[in-house]
Specification:
Helices cover 26% and strands 35% of the residues. It is built from seven helices and 15 strands. The strands form two sheets. Strands 1, 2, 3, 4, 5, 6, 7, 8, 9 and 10 form a ten-stranded mixed β-sheet that branches. A five-stranded antiparallel β-sheet has the order 11-12-13-14-15, with no helix packed on it. Strand 1, helix 1 and strand 2 form a beta-alpha-beta unit. 38% of the residues are buried.
Length: 328
């Protein structure tokens, strides 16, 4: 199936018989659509007919390792998609909450500020659905997701006796390994029937050594073990961790996760330059990052001991080169 193909393949699966019935119903009704209304061919796992793929996602391995009550239990896989995010966001109301869509190759992945990411074989590419009541905490969800990714990788390392890969969080939504970007998170939301429908998309470089860094290349440098990270192991470990962290977040607030988050992010004590207009002049001030404000922006303190909240200006690709200070 080439990038110009008019049809897209979606394989539907569920962990329980109830979720498998949802898969069969969606297939029989042709209920899932793509934003461009292109043709979709449906399969229900494990049907004999199988779409071609160089390295197909092993759905059974993923389901075997999954131990959640909600997230990840309804699964959509495609060998090649424009965007997993578009699948879950466009079909949000047709899918059970916690449904996930994963693809081997993504042609028009979405990033911050409408950036487009083309993702080849070797990346874990997935999006899933969440529904929330409190709009004030929706911006903090991306931090919970980031933390679940880093904790999942840590757990896999512990389980297999591997040296810990120091995957860190770069605020607000990037994952870094050895100083290079290895993944990212994008959350979008709509408001409907007094609920916030959130679509969360994640991309993680598992096996591509270029253009930056990948998990397995760093693992080979640090361990003689034969183990390789797989997309199936990481995805299951992510949802197992995410469900636990998300429940803490919803019932106890982000404060319950702050200590762990600050141990994992890159910014405690980081000094950054904030540019401010003073009349016709642009004045540069140095501030030191202390943490996050309740609204999810950066909390910092200036050399005058004045606490402030740092906002991106919306124009800079690097958040830390376009910060706007608001005094608290």
């Amino acid at each position: 199936m080439d990038s110009q193909s008019p049809s897209c393949v979606l394989v539907l699966a569920g962990k329980s018989s109830a979720e498998m019935e949802i898969a069969k119903t969606l297939k029989s009704n042709n209920a899932l659509k793509l934003p461009d209304n292109s043709e979709v061919r449906f399969f229900v796992h494990p049907e004999i007919q199988r779409p071609p793929s160089e390295e197909p996602f092993q759905i059974d391995l993923f389901m075997k390792s999954l131990s959640t009550n909600q997230f990840g239990r309804f699964f959509i896989w495609s060998p090649r998609l424009p965007s997993t995010h578009d699948v879950v966001s466009h079909n949000f109301c047709e899918l059970p909450i916690g449904a996930v869509c994963a693809a081997d190759i993504q042609l028009k992945g979405r990033g911050r500020s409408k950036n487009v990411w083309e993702s080849p074989i070797g990346c874990l590419l997935f999006s899933f659905t969440i529904q929330m009541d409190d709009g004030k905490i929706v911006p903090l969800l991306q931090y919970v997701i980031s933390l679940a990714i880093t904790e999942a990788i840590k757990e896999i390392c512990d389980k297999n006796g591997l040296p810990y890969l120091d995957v860190r969080i770069k605020w607000p939504n990037d994952l870094y390994l050895n100083g290079l970007k290895v993944g990212g998170i994008l959350c979008t939301s709509t408001y409907k029937s007094k609920k916030f429908n959130v679509s969360a998309g994640i991309g993680l470089n598992v096996d591509n050594e270029k253009p930056t860094v990948c998990l397995n290349a760093v693992l080979r440098e640090t361990s003689v073990a034969s183990y390789k990270f797989t997309r199936e192991d990481i995805l299951a470990a992510f949802f197992n961790k995410f469900e636990t962290l998300y429940n803490l977040f919803i019932h106890q607030g982000f404060q319950a996760l702050e200590e762990l988050y600050y141990k994992t992010w890159l910014h405690s004590g980081q000094r950054v330059i904030v540019q401010e207009k003073n009349g016709e002049q642009v004045v540069e001030n140095v501030v030191s990052i202390q943490g996050l404000t309740p609204s999810g922006y950066l909390l910092a303190v200036g050399e005058d001991n004045q606490m402030c909240e740092l906002h991106p200006d919306g124009n800079s690709f690097d958040f830390f080169k376009g910060l706007v200070r608001r005094k608290l």
